[in-house]
């Protein structure tokens, strides 16, 4: 097992690096978020390959979402998704009340003024 | 005494695969962004430096190490306490020169490159784990020790082990302090 502090710092540096390249105007804002998403996509693909090696085939979409909310989230973030909502037409909303990657920042009041700015972007 | 003993806070661990895969995705993205290996190595070192400056505070808060009196004590602590705490491996330490300011950490198993079979074609001088060098350099600088940290051997480049070399540099204003005393 690796340590959480190290992973959180690595994640922070990755986001900071992507944000800096957006500020320098090298690429448009949208492409930087895409870079981060692409890295996440790669990681997710690798993780799912390893986790689902021995599990049975998924029956339907809901089965897949339940796997992600329970098993996958537990293995990666040590807790389950708190709330899963769906409109039964392909849209799912996953709610995590204590997202591990953000708890350090959301715990105190230091970043409170910037939090609302992030919402509007 | 009826006061309950305060419980030590639980230090969370994360899934190792998540960390290793995230690092791999980062290096892959950097290889796409930068053409030259030196640029990727430099960027990884810079990132590691940023991480190291913050990680050392977490390390000092959790490990309760006593004050060190020599470079070899410091290197031993990096190898036996810090590496063990954050990566779960313990490299062995060797001293490379008589003046005792050059050391090597030798890793049989590098956890960061667990899923890497070989370096991609055309990337033969890529230091895949250069982040580690930056972390060590940043952490040492936050405790006022300047050092040069590089990879001397790398399993991914065909060597038998992975070796990280730490060269402690003399502080330029050390003599000034002594004179004032």
UniProtKB/TrEMBL annotation, chain A:
Protein location: Golgi apparatus, cis-Golgi network
InterPro entries: NO_sig/Golgi_transp_ligand-bd, TRAPP_component, TRAPPC6/Trs33
Entry's Gene Ontology cellular component terms: cis-Golgi network; trans-Golgi network; TRAPP complex
Example GO biological process: endoplasmic reticulum to Golgi vesicle-mediated transport
Xref: CDD domains: TRAPPC6A_Trs33
Pfam families documented for this protein: TRAPP (PF04051)
Family: Belongs to the TRAPP small subunits family. BET3 subfamily.
Classification via PANTHER family: TRAFFICKING PROTEIN PARTICLE COMPLEX SUBUNIT 6B
Protein name (database record): Trafficking protein particle complex subunit 6B isoform X2
Native source organism of the sequence: Heterocephalus glaber (Naked mole rat)
UniProtKB/TrEMBL annotation, chain B:
InterPro entries: Bet3, NO_sig/Golgi_transp_ligand-bd, TRAPP_component
Subcellular location: Endoplasmic reticulum; Golgi apparatus, cis-Golgi network
A Pfam family it matches: TRAPP
Cellular compartments per GO CC: endoplasmic reticulum; Golgi apparatus; TRAPP complex
Known role: May play a role in vesicular transport from endoplasmic reticulum to Golgi.
Entries under PANTHER family matching the protein: TRAFFICKING PROTEIN PARTICLE COMPLEX SUBUNIT 3
Protein name per Swiss-Prot or TrEMBL: Trafficking protein particle complex subunit
Gene of this entry: Trappc3l
């Amino acid at each position: 097992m690796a340590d959480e502090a190290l992973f959180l710092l690595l994640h922070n540096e990755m986001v900071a690096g992507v944000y800096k390249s957006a500020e320098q105007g090298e690429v448009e804002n949208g492409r930087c978020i895409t870079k981060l998403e692409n890295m996440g996509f790669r990681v997710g693909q690798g993780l799912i390959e390893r986790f689902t090696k021995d599990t049975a085939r998924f029956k339907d979409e809901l089965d897949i979402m339940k796997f992600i909310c329970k098993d996958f989230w537990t293995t990666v973030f040590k807790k389950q998704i708190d709330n899963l909502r769906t409109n039964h037409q392909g849209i799912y909303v996953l709610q995590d009340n204590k997202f591990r990657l953000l708890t350090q920042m959301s715990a105190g009041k230091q970043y409170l003024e910037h939090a609302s700015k992030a919402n509007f972007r | 005494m009826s006061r309950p003993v305060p419980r030590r806070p639980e230090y969370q661990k994360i899934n190792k695969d998540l960390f290793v895969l995230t690092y791999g995705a980062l290096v892959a993205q950097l290889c796409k962004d930068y053409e030259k290996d030196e640029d990727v190595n430099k960027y990884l070192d810079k990132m590691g430096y940023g991480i190291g400056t913050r990680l050392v505070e977490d390390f000092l808060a959790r490990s309760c190490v006593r004050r060190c009196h020599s470079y070899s004590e410091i290197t031993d602590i990096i190898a036996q306490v810090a590496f063990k705490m954050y990566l779960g491996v313990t490299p062995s330490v060797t001293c490379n020169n008589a003046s005792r300011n050059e050391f090597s950490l030798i890793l049989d198993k590098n956890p960061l490159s667990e899923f890497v079979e070989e370096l991609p074609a055309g990337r033969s001088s890529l230091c895949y784990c250069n982040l580690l060098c930056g972390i060590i350099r940043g952490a040492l600088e936050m405790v006022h020790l300047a050092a040069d940290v590089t990879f001397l051997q790398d399993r991914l480049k065909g060597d038998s082990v992975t070796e990280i070399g730490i060269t402690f540099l003399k502080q330029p204003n050390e003599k000034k302090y002594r004179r004032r005393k």
